[in-house]
Specification:
22% strand, alpha/beta, single chain, seven-stranded mixed β-sheet, 520 residues, 20 strands, globular
Length: 520
Amino acid sequence: MNVVSKTTVNTTQWDAIVIGSGIGGLVTATQLAVKGAKVLVLERYTIPGGSSGSFRRAGFTFDVGASMIFGFGKKGHTNLLTRALADVDQICETIPDPVQLAYHLPGELELVVNRDYKKFIADLISRFPHEAKGIEKFYGICWQVFNCLDAMPLLSIEDPAYLAKVFFKAPLACLGLARWLPTNVGDVARRYIKDPELLRFIDIECFCWSVMPADRTPMINAGMVFSDRHAGGINYPKGGVGVIAEKLVNGLTNYGGQIKYKSRVTKIILEGNQAIGVQLATGEIIHANKVISNATRWDTFGGAEANKSLVAKTKTPSSEIKWRNRYMPSPSFLSIHLGVNSEAIPSGTHCHHLLLDQWHKMEYEQGVAFVSIPTLLDNSLAPKGQHIVHAFTPSSMKEWEGLNPTKYSEKKEADANQLITKLEKVLPNLKGAITHREVGTPRSHRRFLGRFQGSYGPIPSIRLPGLLPMPFNTTGIKGLFCVGDSCFPGQGLNAVAFSGFACAHRIGADLNMNAWELPE
């Protein structure tokens, strides 16, 4: 039980306080620090990164979340992780993955998404030769969207003066991008493709990163993901995904910012309708000109657990209530982190896999299994002669609540064993090769990551027009901003990095700190 001390006031005045050190929060913090702002990051846990962090056990370095990383290319404007690190004089050594994902799907449908775009398209056409034109047209449109994104340094959607400068630099790209903002993937796919199995494949192509089928996945996001995997490619950070957050923290402190761990914010302090600071679980009050929440919008403004939100329920803006009516939390995950003997990994195995045995189970509880074996790219993550197998499957919090410790432990072990059995489709000798085992549940994600229901992020509760209804960084409370996967453009490291750039630019405009020139 936390013991709250007597309220104390920290007299240091910060330009900005960032609640949480996920990638969105850290990109916001580092971008503001580079502009000259005095920035403090408050992290409830002992390490940075949130679901993009890493933890170490028995000689293994495990990634908390997925290890399929976009945003580490070297050219264009979409490589936001590369750019965010470079802006604070940091470089992350990466290892290219020759394959984004190996699909193991119903009807013995086995497909590999090769880094080489022509190879991927040729493989897909060989499986669906009657849809050759439709395949080329659909994925060609994805490239059109990507090329629009990659042609301009689009950092802020909420600064009209900046948008005007971007438009004058790349008018055709801006107009091309605007065309696809209200569109979902399914609408485009069905224009050119008729084969039901191929349309289901495009559903799972979307689901593997958006946790939604094509009809509810924005075309802008798909254009980015379906093309960048062949342009910048999937590149794994040497040393584990947590290195990204660690290097951003180094950059933050080098530019005069600070981060405090074990600092759980329990309240955003308001004066009228103006955010003026935060209160910690210890009772300490810290003031700032701007407050940025990297918590989910449910944790920031309430939801089913509104009494636990950072903003008092009576102060919740109507725009946030409207948002909650449009979006719901996606499922959390049951995850297993395994250390295994090397012989459990057959020669030629790819790093990332997705398994689904029946199409109708795609959105079911624990219906899809994702697998990554990052030691195939970076063997320094495990002791000699060992590999890491990290697998996770969508799981709802409601399946885990109300269980007493015994029932919880039993379910945890039973569901983990069931997931391991599924993995034996691609790793037949897995069970007997396990040397280390960690199991996480939605309750684990809620506890350690501080995320509402342990959720992966928001998904539409109704069919919505692409990205248009997605909220941006500003809120209905002055001086209070949100960043991360609850903001435009949604989930994924590159997406939350974008929200971080956008948030820092919007605040920089308010503080008169932004450079006039567009980024190169």
